[in-house]
Amino acid sequence: MAQCAEAATPDSPKVTRTWFFLGNLARDVTVEDIIKFFNFEVEWRQDLARVELINDKHNRPKGHGFIGVPRYLTDRVMEFHERDFHGRKLKVERAKAGRYLKMTNRQFVGIGHGVHVSTSKQILVHPKPDMSSWPHVIDIGANLAHASFTKDLPRILNNAKVVGVQKIIVTGTSLKTSYSAQKLTQEHTDYLYFTAGVHPHDAVTWNDDVAKRIEKLCEDPACVAVGETGLDFERNFSPQDVQQTVFEKQIQLACKLKKPLFVHERKAFDDVLRLLVKYKKDLPPTVIHCFGGTDVQLETYLENGFYIGLTGSVFRDTQQHGPLQILIDKLMPLDKLMIETDSPFLFPDIKRFLKNYAAKQLYAKSDIKSKFDNLERLLKTYCKGHRNEPCTLAVTNQIIAILMGLEPEEVAKATTDNAMSFFRLT
């Protein structure tokens, strides 16, 4: 058994992790796929678990990696051995210290969540494409307070600026991350802004003291929205009745402060809509963050005046009437659209996107093919492994434009204007 005790973040305890070898991985498997498969998202968000995928010297995935978890999760990890994962039988075994060190060679590319490891002592760097003419965009939701961004945030922000990301809104998902987001905005004024709120996953942490502190954070001029708040009935990390109570409390706060509302909804459309409509008379501008619903749900949101946030997750959509088809059918009005990365999650994996039937039909067109090839090169140049970063927003903007049959400049201008007005940015 190989154990690795890593330095904790300033606000978290030191964690001793047990490491497991993951073998027989499909080449297109991402860190996010592994997180969802093992269902350890809470542990990742709290910086208790880590995953590492192994690349060769050309930065290509080798089909195996490592997962490090707190000791109390070791038995659960072994339960996934021989389970079907992306069309293969996953191999899970305790990592031996010698094997772990030899295979990783301790040459880390990136840090924290989404770490990719290279066996090469030299990291090959290709010439970066000229992005100076790309249109300006605004990332309305990036989890830059996440522990995986602690050590290389300057590089991340610089890359974002290079590809045209004009401003970034740092998402607060708990009291702790809201404070961290506030601190980041103080260090990067006029470029970073933040939201303050409690995510439905963390609804069980809500109490009177948290409510007072969140309200105080929302009074900061750099805080541009209440949230991330909402309902998540897919994972139910907090009981549904608790989620609804806490969501309603934050709706009331947004109404009181007349501060925009940043809403998360997953498998809870009816209840989210019911609670929002209940306060429609006093409800401030509201955005449905990371929209993943159907065309019917979209129409209902729009009828109620809500804005829609789209991320790289649209590239993975396989619903018959989901966001991908909505864009192709041109059902998304530009005057209600904003774009975001939700980094470090939801990496815009173009290869996976092209596996979708509708996308393949677009890709078959020669002019579209060259555009996709250039976007994939951009991702490889600016991003570390498959950890999502704000710089990928440039790719999301370009692909949304391709799907809608519009020029990237038109989508960028509309979404940027919407963000500036919605969040009252300066």
TrEMBL record:
PANTHER family: DEOXYRIBONUCLEASE TATDN1, TATD FAMILY DEOXYRIBONUCLEASE. The gene is LOC100375359. It comes from the Eukaryota. InterPro entries: DNase_TatD-rel_CS, Metal_Hydrolase, Nucleotide-bd_a/b_plait_sf, RBD_domain_sf, RRM_dom, TatD-like, TatD-type_Hydrolase. Residues 18-97 form the RRM domain. Keywords: Hydrolase, Metal-binding, Nuclease, RNA-binding. This is Deoxyribonuclease TATDN1. The keyword RNA-binding applies. PROSITE patterns: RRM, TATD_2. SUPFAM superfamilies: Metallo-dependent hydrolases, RNA-binding domain, RBD. Gene3D superfamilies: 3.30.70.330, Metal-dependent hydrolases. It holds the Pfam family TatD_DNase. Deoxyribonuclease which catalyzes (in vitro) the decatenation of kinetoplast DNA, which are circular DNA catenated to each other, producing linear DNA molecules. Plays an important role in chromosomal segregation and cell cycle progression during eye development probably via its DNA decatenation activity. Belongs to the metallo-dependent hydrolases superfamily. TatD-type hydrolase family.
